[in-house]
């Protein structure tokens, strides 16, 4: 069987449709790329491009995407509710078929070297990072774009690739290899961000919640809602339904209801299987092969 690699490229632009289309055209100029999902969020001011293919094609497509995004996006003008530190903010490479984590690390390192050659400071994370304190995306991105110039003056935060000086236009990029995560958002019928922050504490690892959940509360001003935005970094150890039920229960304490939820980007079938198991008590005889 052929090797299949997936990339999930997060860029800091979710409102300029013409710019987003130009970035899309850049990576689709590579043959053999299968688009899995493209998600643009105006409140986050962020777009996530998810695609897969053979490793060489995915790497080339990611280089072209990043080059176009760096060319078009000016971080000095960027505003958005989602944490970010660069025009090309984070680029994880994910094994899909016949790929090892080590294979993905090689791809991430080559991409990081290329992006660094374009004048963008690059940090490796997760399995592509040797230093333990720099493995976590939230730790690398702490302080966001606004705090990046000062952060880079600290030798502990010298970039792994690219210039060692702050790049005002492009910020910095984080890239690496990781286990397939589930980006799961829950939207609440309240405009009170403080309530959202209290609810987040029930699931966020750093606040004593679930070890494999990273979460923040964001204001969705157009919808007049608050969003609990989450990265579930290991759905096998912390399934979707457990997090959903916890937030539902905590929200009820404030007379707040769940309006709807969002799954951003691809979702492993195994994660959906867990949801089916919990909510409809599906038979153990059920097989994912029955899904078509």
Automatic annotation (TrEMBL):
Residues 180-291 form the Formiminotransferase C-terminal subdomain domain. It is an enzyme of class 2 (transferase). Its main location: cytoplasm. Its EC number is 2.1.2.5. Residues 3-179 form the Formiminotransferase N-terminal subdomain domain. Coiled coil: none annotated. PANTHER family: FORMIMINOTRANSFERASE-CYCLODEAMINASE. This is glutamate formimidoyltransferase. The lineage of its organism: Bacteria, Bacillati, Bacillota, Tissierellia, Tissierellales.
């Amino acid at each position: 069987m052929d090797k299949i690699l997936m990339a999930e490229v997060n860029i800091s632009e979710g409102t300029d449709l013409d710019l987003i289309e130009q970035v899309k055209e850049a990576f689709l100029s590579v043959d053999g790329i299968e688009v899995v999902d493209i998600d643009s969020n105006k409140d986050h001011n962020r777009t996530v491009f998810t695609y897969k293919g053979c490793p060489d094609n995915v790497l080339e497509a990611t280089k072209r995407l990043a080059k176009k995004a760096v060319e078009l996006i000016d971080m000095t003008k960027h505003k958005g509710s989602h944490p970010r530190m660069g025009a090309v903010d984070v680029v994880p490479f994910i094994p899909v078929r016949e790929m090892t984590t080590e294979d993905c690390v090689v791809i991430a390192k080559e991409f990081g070297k290329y992006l660094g050659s374009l004048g963008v400071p690059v940090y490796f994370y997760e399995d592509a990072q040797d230093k333990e304190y720099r493995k976590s995306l939230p730790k690398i991105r702490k302080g966001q774009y606004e705090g990046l110039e000062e952060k880079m003056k600290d030798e502990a935060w010298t970039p792994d690739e690219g210039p060692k000086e702050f790049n005002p236009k492009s910020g910095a990029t984080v890239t690496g290899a990781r286990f397939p995560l589930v980006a799961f958002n829950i939207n609440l019928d309240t405009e009170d961000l403080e309530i959202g922050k209290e609810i987040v504490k029930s699931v966020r690892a750093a606040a004593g919640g679930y070890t494999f959940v990273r979460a923040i509360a964001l204001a969705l001003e157009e919808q007049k809602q608050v969003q609990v935005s989450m990265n579930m970094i290991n759905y096998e150890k912390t399934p979707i339904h457990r997090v959903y039920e916890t937030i539902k229960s905590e929200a009820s304490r404030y007379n707040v209801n769940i309006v709807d939820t969002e799954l951003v980007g691809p979702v492993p079938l195994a994660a959906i299987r867990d949801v089916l198991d919990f909510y409809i008590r599906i038979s153990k005889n059920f097989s994912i092969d029955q899904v078509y």
